[in-house]
Design a protein that fits this description.
Layout (H helix, E strand, L loop, with lengths): L5 H4 L10 E5 L5 E5 L5 E4 L2 E2 L8 E5 L7 E8 L2 E8 L7 E4 L12 H18 L20 E4 L4 E4 L2 E2 L5 E5 L5 E3 L4 E10 L3 E7 L4 E8 L1 E2 L6 E2 L4 E4 L10 E8 L2 E3 L12
Parallel strand pairs: 8-10
Antiparallel strand pairs: 1-2, 2-5, 3-4, 3-6, 6-7, 9-12, 10-11, 12-20, 13-19, 14-15, 14-18, 15-16, 16-20, 17-19, 20-21
This protein binds zinc ion.
């Protein structure tokens, strides 16, 4: 819906290769670009997935992304270069008490081994790079009705102990509420009873943009399934580290933690 839309109204800087950018260069945000199919993309000198068959590509900005990010698009001997200025995100501090202690400071050796095994499985799923680009059409909300109970990026203090920032967008809703895939994609992970995440499903929405859906009470898709936008993939629950029923919705790209809520709605030309 956005291809050829918003970007045409403005006049983004152009070099040799034809490139159009849309999105929000802000910590936790992203930019979607359009160029020639198969053009090679580099971010800060790092080779990323090439532009898709429709010519779409993505750059994600970590919660703690430095302020300058160099994009290069190489296409048949032509090079487009642009340094993007990444705005600072505004993140709060959030104290949560009453979290099960073995999910805050685990000490049991068997549990620590389990956490390591689960972490390796998740890393493998996060490394997926599907050649498709459903992300380029934007996302819809994964729940029809919800209350945002925790924003992306909050510094967290769990049971009084400073913890990692919150890398998800929490959507509180009654247990059993259907979770709808916000975009098309391929399921790269689906397991119940993960120590932290409970029922966890991960979907590659294109070129390694992997969303995670946590704490589900019921999962309706399995690894390898292709899903369509709006398809029910599971149900809201409070499995894993949760103090009430909610969907923790996460998004990563090349090891960077992004705010998935910024993908809902129209994109601005950059
Ligand atoms: Zn969360």
């Amino acid at each position: 819906m956005l291809a050829g839309g918003l970007g045409a109204a403005a006049a983004p800087a152009r070099a040799a290769a034809n490139v159009r950018l849309e999105g929000q260069p802000v910590q936790g945000g992203y930019v979607v670009g359009w160029t020639q199919p198969g053009a090679q993309i580099y971010v800060n000198g790092e080779r990323c997935a090439p532009a898709s068959r429709r010519g779409a590509f993505v750059i994600g900005f970590d919660r703690d992304e430095p302020p300058a990010c160099l994009l290069e698009v190489h296409d048949r001997g032509e090079v487009f270069r642009r340094t993007l200025t990444v705005a600072r995100g505004t993140f709060g501090v959030q104290r949560i008490d009453g979290v099960p202690q073995d999910t805050v400071t685990p000490t049991d050796p068997a549990l620590l081994a389990r956490i390591r095994t689960e972490s390796a499985m998740k890393q493998e799923a996060y490394a997926s790079i599907s050649p498709d680009d459903p992300f380029a059409d934007g996302f819809s909300w994964p729940l029809k009705k919800f209350r945002n109970s925790s924003k992306f990026g909050n510094q967290r203090i769990l049971n009084g102990v400073p913890n990692r920032p919150h890398y998800g967008y929490d959507m509180a809703a009654p247990a059993g509420t259907p979770i709808l895939s916000p975009a098309g994609g391929v399921v790269v992970f689906a397991r119940p009873r993960m120590h932290y995440e409970g029922g966890l499903t991960m979907i590659d929405h294109g070129v390694g943009l992997v969303c995670a859906y946590l704490h589900q009470s019921k999962q309706l898709v399995k690894t390898g399934d292709r899903v369509l936008r709006g398809q029910t993939i599971g149900e809201v629950g409070m499995t894993g580290r949760a103090t009430g029923p909610h969907l923790c919705w996460r998004l990563t790209w090349r090891g960077r933690h992004l705010d998935p809520s910024l993908w809902v709605g129209a994109r601005r030309p950059v």
